[in-house]
Write a structure and sequence with these properties.
Blueprint: E1 9-16, H1 22-29, E2 34-41, H2 48-57, H3 59-62, E3 73-76, H4 79-85, H5 87-101, E4 105-107, H6 108-118, E5 123-128, H7 132-144, E6 148-154, H8 170-178, E7 187-190, H9 198-203, E8 212-214, H10 215-227, H11 234-241
Parallel strand pairs: 1-2, 1-3, 3-4, 5-6, 5-7, 7-8
Helix pairs in contact: 2-4, 4-7, 6-10
């Protein structure tokens, strides 16, 4: 079945309730023929960590919002929930939901793992917008997948705002990324789906530093690989990292 705006495929995305970055970045990232419908992850828990745990517990039911829309792959644009759930619980949930729904369900964190693996990266650096507790959980998550975290550059929002991560400006992320240009690593990951990353990534193409990628970029790449019926490939990921074709849309 072909949809008017999704000749290549329709994807479904789960997005944390106050995240203001996912839809704009993915709408820039998607190649021609890919369309996205979005559902919000909702929680009334009082802390970031508690909300992340709540989101993870309700991934399966959140997909009900898509009803019988003909999506071919679904994603969870929420990395923090993966850190707190841990590798084994996440893998079990993804397998169970994918089998029950009849289409692949992929988290942003697992997409990053797939990206690092196809790039044969083992030593990594992170750009992190997280508070200390979530930052520690993030490092432990990457280590559980066999990656050595060499260093972490922190991106902060110095002003009071509605959310410490979602309100970050791209320049704060870019400054943290530039701190890692000389890091002796195989890859750099800009963490979180709520931190703006596309302009910082565009601006370091061709730099002397390690290949840099973000959680949103990796999730978009991984979902398009599913639509194309392909296993994750380094050659396609390199094109995404090089900005093909999304970088040209940034200032359009």
């Amino acid at each position: 079945m072909s949809l008017e705006y999704a000749s290549r495929g329709l994807v479904g995305m789960l997005t944390p309730q106050a995240n203001t970055t996912v839809e704009p970045e993915f709408n820039l990232l998607w190649p021609s023929g890919v369309a996205m419908i979005n559902a919000r992850l909702l929680s009334d828990k009082p802390t970031i960590a508690a909300r992340l745990v709540d989101y993870f517990a309700h991934y399966g039911s959140a997909l009900d919002q898509f009803a019988n829309a003909p999506i071919r792959v679904a994603g969870a644009a929420c990395t923090g929930a993966s850190y707190l759930a841990g590798r084994e619980r996440e893998a079990a949930l993804l397998a169970e939901v994918s089998a029950r729904r009849g289409y692949p369900f992929i988290t942003a964190a697992v997409a990053v793992v797939d990206a690092l693996n196809v790039m044969q990266a083992r030593r990594i650096a992170l750009v992190s917008p997280y508070p200390d507790d979530l930052n520690a959980a993030s490092i432990a998550y990457w280590q559980s997948h066999g990656f050595a975290v060499d260093r972490v550059a922190r991106a902060f929002n110095t002003a009071a705002a509605f959310h410490p991560i979602y309100s970050l400006e791209g320049e704060a992320a870019a400054q943290a990324l530039r701190e890692l240009e000389n890091a002796p690593v195989d890859a750099i990951v800009m963490l979180g789906t709520g931190m703006p990353t596309l302009r910082p990534l565009r601006d370091v193409r061709g730099w002397r530093g390690a290949p840099a990628m973000s959680c949103n970029l990796c999730l978009a790449w991984r979902m398009v690989e599913v639509l194309d019926g392909a296993t994750p490939r380094a050659e396609t990921l390199r094109r995404w990292i090089a900005g093909e074709p999304w970088a040209a849309r940034l200032d359009g």
